[in-house]
């Protein structure tokens, strides 16, 4: 029973590995998976080695380039920092000027009242007309002064805006210089191309390795299946031969050899050693049927007269005993019933 279970398991595995191989080869047929031979695989292995070496050399060059780039970055950063510091100082000066001029714009001249009547109380001889002219002059001066200051303020505000933009630009340059050093486009392009080639060749070789593995799995599973089947046939042959020997011993004692069955590959042989003849052949067939009836769940056996009449009467008597003692159904046909032994006739009745 264990052998049968093992056979079923190995048969299932063999079918699975065979189906997997067929599916993989079908995918290769329609170019879903690369399909290369052993020669291309070996060639690819050498190319992969070359590409990896070139990638390593490129990485070293890039690393060296970064070192040189770091020195350049440091020098450039120092230069930009100097410009940034100088620009910030100039901007501070402009801010101070703007604050001062803003205060001047907001300054208001003292308002001179036009009502000089009270002044006449204390200075009856005061020239009111002259005072009014002076007040009008003050208003004109104030208007001109505010206009000039406003113009100057706008000029300083523009100057401050320019300095603010310049400071922002220097700060951004410094930040990008520190955070994002740029590699050569040629280096990056070559690195990308090497990776693309490497990936493509690796996929080709992986397809070859996978196919080789699937073929090996199929071969191993088939070998195991053949071995377990042969083992099963060996056990089956031993059981059948033992049963046939016992049955033959019961029928013929030591007079005749028992039939033997042997399985080999996809064929079998069934014979009686050192004995030939039509009667022996039919006897062997009956013995085999009785052995199968005993060892298996076969519920019934049928023997025609053409088989039984070739066997000796004494042997028929023993065979009929075996039929009679069997717990299974036996159907036979005889055409010379009265010629058998008394015991045989008794069994038949």
UniProtKB/TrEMBL annotation:
The keyword Coiled coil applies. Keywords: Coiled coil. Pfam families: DUF2326 (PF10088). It comes from the Bacteria. Residues 250-341 form the DUF2326 domain. InterPro entries: DUF2326. Residues 38-72, 153-180 form a coiled coil. The keyword Coiled coil applies. This is DUF2326 domain-containing protein. It comes from Sporolactobacillus inulinus.
């Amino acid at each position: 029973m264990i052998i049968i279970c093992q056979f079923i398991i190995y048969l299932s595995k063999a079918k699975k590995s065979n189906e997997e191989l067929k599916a993989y080869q079908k995918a290769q047929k329609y170019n879903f998976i690369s399909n290369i031979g052993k020669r291309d695989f070996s060639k690819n292995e050498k190319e992969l080695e070359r590409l990896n070496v070139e990638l390593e050399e490129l990485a070293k060059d890039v690393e060296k380039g970064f070192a040189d780039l770091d020195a350049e970055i440091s020098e450039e950063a120092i230069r930009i920092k100097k410009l940034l510091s100088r620009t910030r100082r100039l901007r501070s000066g402009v801010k101070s000027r703007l604050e001062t001029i803003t205060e001047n714009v907001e300054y208001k001249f003292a308002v001179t009242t036009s009502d000089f009547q009270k002044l006449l109380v204390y200075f009856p001889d005061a020239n009111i007309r002259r005072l009014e002219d002076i007040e009008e002059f003050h208003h004109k001066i104030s208007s001109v002064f505010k206009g000039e200051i406003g113009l100057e303020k706008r000029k300083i505000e523009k100057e401050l805006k320019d300095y603010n933009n310049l400071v922002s630009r220097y700060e951004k340059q410094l930040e990008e210089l520190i955070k994002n050093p740029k590699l050569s486009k040629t280096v990056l392009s070559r690195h990308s191309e090497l990776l693309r080639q490497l990936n493509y060749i690796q996929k080709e070789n992986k397809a070859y390795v996978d196919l080789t593995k699937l073929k090996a799995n199929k071969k191993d599973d088939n070998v195991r299946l053949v071995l377990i089947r042969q083992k099963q046939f060996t056990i089956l042959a031993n059981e059948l031969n033992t049963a046939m020997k016992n049955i033959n011993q019961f029928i013929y004692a030591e007079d005749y050899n028992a039939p033997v069955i042997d399985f080999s590959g996809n064929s079998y042989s069934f014979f009686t050693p050192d004995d030939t003849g039509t009667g022996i052949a039919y006897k062997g067939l009956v013995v085999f049927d009785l052995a199968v009836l005993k060892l298996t769940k076969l519920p019934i056996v049928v023997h025609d007269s053409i088989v039984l009449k070739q066997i000796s009467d004494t042997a028929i008597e023993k065979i009929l005993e075996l039929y009679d003692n069997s717990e299974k159904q036996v159907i036979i046909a005889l055409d010379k019933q009265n010629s058998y032994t008394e015991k045989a006739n008794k069994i038949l009745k």
